[in-house]
Each structure stands twice: as structure tokens, then as C-alpha cells.
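Extended Data, panel c. Modelled sequence:
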Amino acid sequence: MQSSSLVAQVSKQCLYAADVEEGLPADSSERNIAINRYAEAWACKQLLVAEGMKHSSFQQQLMPAIEQQVATYKEDLLVHHFLDDRVKRASHNEVSLEEITAYYKGKQDDFMLNHAIVKGLFLVIPKRTRGVNAVKSWMLSSSAADRKKLKDYCKRHAQVALLEEDKWVSWESILARMNYYPLGSNDPTRVVKTNKFIHAADRKCLYLLKINQYKLAEEKATAPLEVVADRIKAIILHKRKLKLIKEIKANLLREAKKNHTCVIHVQ
């Protein structure tokens, strides 16, 4: 017995509020629009099903095929979940750096750089923050003491601070995180080639970028290993999964043949 309120009804089929709760907007007006849209789609489906059931010739022609499709889908779904469970039990998600490096070296043509990447320091600070000249000096300095001053300053004032100078970062991610669009920055080739230090501002923020190194897609270079390491790990894990599934299937078939629970007659 449903305890939630009734939203829609078509003949004896009922849709309750509890059936449509998940994923609804918090705003009451948007919520009502979403519920109404869902209810109309649900009602239309019930009406179409009812119309299809009225026509006996339609049922006779299609029901055997539909039932076969449903049976096949259930079998496929059961197989999928069984194999997924076996793979999770038998496999692990650790991929060593040696495996990643070996795959990378053997497949470098698959990892051509398709976007601009840079190494450096990237900051966004409020426009009225004091000590901007000191910040610039610390960014340009290579001393450990100045690096510490910069980090301490960023903890107190920076809205965005990317301080790992040895890490490659995509130019697009810098733009996205910094909301930085002056100086024709959508053209990375011109910007990174002509600027080693960028100081720009809008009404609220200062954008400070020190570019140490860059690689551009137009150079047709292989992406650095660290940039594609996660992608390679996913590829290795997927290949490992496919291999394990193949082994599971082969073992099941071999045991079934051995126990005579499976007999294949080849004409």
C-alpha cells in the first residue's frame, strides 16, 4: 500500500510522489514543473501500452519477439553482473609505475599532445590585496626562503594558487580555474611564446602567471608521461579486465566439457 500522495493515474496504474522524488529541484516552482513533466511522460507511456494491448493482431505479431528480447536482456544482465562480481573478487586496481612506463614507451604514437600544457606558478589574488610587488618578486625568485614566503602569502590571500612548478598543467584548466581571458589567452601559442610572466587584472582580481616551460599541440610532440599516466592506468586496467573475463569464460567452458555438462556437436 503506497503511503505517499497520488500524482497521476491511468486506469488502474498509479504514479505516487515517492516514485518521482529522486533528483527533483529544491525550488518549489521548478519542482512542480519537473513533477508535471515526469507525470505526463509516465501517463503517455501507460496510454501507449494500453493501446498496444488492445490490438490482438499487434500482440500476436510482436509479443513473441518482445518476450525473446526481454529474456535475452535478462540473461545478458545476469552474465554482466556475474562477470563483474568475479572480476572484482579476482583483480586489483594497482598498476605499477613500471607497467605504466612500459606501456607509454611502447605506444607513444597513441599519446600525441592535443592541447597546450605549461609548467609554472599561477595565482589569483583579490585586486586590493597589499604586497603585490613582493608576490611578483617571490614568484620570480628561486630561493627556498622566497618560496616559503609565497606559500604563506597564498594561504592567507590567494583565491587560486597552483604552486607545483614541476607539474604540467593544461592551459585550458588554468583559464577555467582563474577565469582568465585577457590578452587573447584563448590563443595559447601566442601567449606562452611571448610571455614568461603575465600580470593581468579585471575589476576584482589580479592574475599572475609565471611560465617556466610549455608544450603546444602544434608541435606534434608526445605528451609527457605524467600528463597521460591516469589514462594509461585506465587502459591497463581495462585490458586486464578483458583478459580475466576471457579466462573465466574459458575455464567455465573447459570444466563443463570435462564434466560432460556441456556437449557441443559440430556438424
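DSSP finds eight helices and seven strands in the chain. This feature is highlighted in the accompanying rendering.
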